[in-house]
Amino acid sequence: MAETFTARIWALGDDIDTDIVIPTEYLALKTVQDMTPYAFSPLRPELAAQIQPGDVIVAGKNFGCGSSREQAPEVIKALGVKAVIAGSFARIFYRNAINNGLLLIECPALCTDVQDGDEITVEVGKSITVGGRTYPIGALPENLLDIINAGGLVKAMRKRNGLD
Amino acid sequence: MGATFIEKLLRRNTGIADAKCGDIVTANVDRVMIHDIFIPFVKEKFEEMGFTEIWDPDKVVLIYDHLVPASQLDDPRHHRIGNEFAAKYGLTHVHRSDGICHQLMTEAGYVKPGNVVFGTDSHTTTYGCVGAFSSGIGYTEMASILGTGTLWVKIPETIKVVIDGELPEHVTSKDVILRLIGDLTAAGASYCALEFSGSTVENMTVASRMTMANMAIEAGAKCALFTPDEKTAEYCAVELTEDMKTLSGDPDANYLKTIHYQAEELVPALACPSQVDKIRPVSELEGLEIDQVFLGSCTNGRLEDLRTAAAIVKGKTVAPFVKFIVTPASRKIYLEALEDGTLDTLAAAGAIITHPGCGLCCGRTGGILTDGERVVATNNRNFLGRMGTSKVEIYLASPATAAACAVTGKITLP
Fold first, then answer.
1. Which of A127, B140, B154, B163 has its CA 20 to 30 A from that of B34?
2. B51 in reach of chain A (CB within 8 A)
3. Contact status of A27 with chain B (Cβ, < 8 Å)
4. CB pairs under 8 A between A and B
5. Considering only alpha carbons, which residue of chain A is nearest residue B215?
């Protein structure tokens, strides 16, 4: 059965690069948790403190472009963000997010129709509903589902190595 | 039907004779690169995965470049962990202050034509300059490669880019790639391979091709590919084999699209704040006052770039209020530029010459800027906050344009 959840959203624009998600100057902090206060700081310094666990980020095209820094999806996950919904994703970010078990959903029409604070209902792999409008969404490719089902790449490798 | 470059390369690598774009294949990795920012994270994930040895220590290269020399208190920890990691798992290819990772991977001979290479940095696309398939990945995938020697990849669709003719004076490969990124947009080549050909490309040095491959990621590309030729072979210190020569796209291959440029029509270009695809001709912005110029990075910190700049500033002086920062991409380049008088000329004109490394490009050290300042830079990204505060204006340009701007203190055509 597909998972369904309701969440408050934060709306961002196109081409949100990973330098915006977490600037280089904070990448050598000891833990990803230490980096969370600086998430999105070049664009919206106040946002990291406003995001609550369970919230969803909605953005336009090419989310996660730029640097390969895997701290980007990890910081978003550490903030408690339930999912990122975007028009499209940059490829390195996409792989990194999947490997860390961060839910990504492509939905090009959504970002222009919503604003901060809107409440959306997501039926994973099927549709998103907001303010009475419904947007269809696709399912993940099978080879990525295998990684997600294993609980991320680290767990998939632990299983391979006979540890779990 | 013929095959694209990337289809041929991955068929060779995987042994799957009919592999084609869209197929998901398991690639056998020839070399990996991990730089200092991500080493602690790779080590943590590798050990958490339960691996106890590295699949082939000879294929792993560690490079300290983003944090050398340290500029923040947490930085040296990355190098200590790197040294411990290398000692524990028998890694011998460790570069502690030799220059920028992407420069060293080709310059030190770690990448050969036809190789499959991954690195924990998005500009790993650079090695396509010698006909390798190379792409950036995160540290978790890198940890899994260290254990298995393999990585799954979807064979990408290919956009063919043909550039013919002779580039006008002071128009460089940087201007070509900026124009292409502007035309494609920042997501225009997402998940695709960019395959470069044409007489302009054939006449380019490997260093110039490197600039273009380096920036392919700025259009979202998975990789950039240049067919190996005599220049490639000489640069890589290998013999140009018949097999290497076959690494090119067939005319009847399945291309997503083909883009054609005539070199004579290209002009000096700028990427304007704060997106790499906001491209305008330098001529439209002439006269705009600037505070700093940065000549360096894995995009444009090579000997030919420093020489180009030196020829422009020779006998002149940098504008009074402008800081002109020059960062050679590697120690080898630094020494060559010292030897042939290039650094002498730049320093005499008023340039600040820094140690080889990533330096200002990633905004951690050596000339960060603050609100209201404007910089002309030869690197690859002008993102918000990349070189200091989010209210810094970064214009990306070629070494020729950057040098001309340093002399006048304004945006200036070379």
1. B154
2. yes
3. yes
4. 126
5. A66
Phi, psi torsion values for B318, nearest 5 degrees: -65, 140
CATH of B5-263, one of 3.30.499.10, 3.40.50.150, 3.40.1010.20, 3.30.2290.10: 3.30.499.10
Domain with A81 in it: what CATH number?
3.20.19.10
Number of domains within chain A: 1
Residue A146: inside a domain: no
pLDDT per residue as tens digits for the range A93-136 = 999 999 998 999 999 999 999 999 999 999 988 999 999 999 99
Mutation site for A-interface testing, chosen from B141, B218, B387 by largest number of A Cβ within 10 Å:
B141
Return d(Cα B134, Cα B209) in angstroms, integer.
14
Task: Tell if the CB–CB gap between B48 and A158 is shorter than 8 Å.
Answer: yes
The answer to whether A157 contacts chain B (CB < 8 Å) is yes
Question: In chain B, where are the structural domains located?
Answer: 5-263, 271-408
pLDDT tens digits along B344-403: 999 999 999 999 999 899 888 889 999 999 999 999 999 999 999 999 999 999 999 999
Q: Which among B8, B2, B123, B110 has a CA at the least distance from the CA of B59?
A: B110
Q: How many residues are listed for chain A in this entry?
A: 164
* Distance separating the N- and C-terminal Cα atoms of chain B: 45
In a domain, A149, yes or no: no
CB B348 within 8 A of CB B381: no
Could you tell me if residue A154 is inside a domain? no
Chain A residues in contact with B147 by the CB 8 A cut-off are 157, 161
From B122's Cα to the closest Cα of chain A, the distance in A is: 5
Q: Return the minimum-mean-pLDDT range out of A13-22, A140-149, B132-141, B290-299.
A: A140-149
Chain A stretch 44-63, residues whose beta carbon is closer than 8 A to a beta carbon of chain B: 61-62
Using one digit for the tens of pLDDT, what is the confidence trace for B209-256?
999 999 999 999 999 999 999 999 999 999 999 999 999 999 999 999
CATH 3.30.70.100 fits domain B271-408: no
In chain B, which residues have their Cβ closer than 8 Å to the Cβ of A23? 363, 385
Say what the pTM is. 0.96
- For A78, the domain range is 4-139
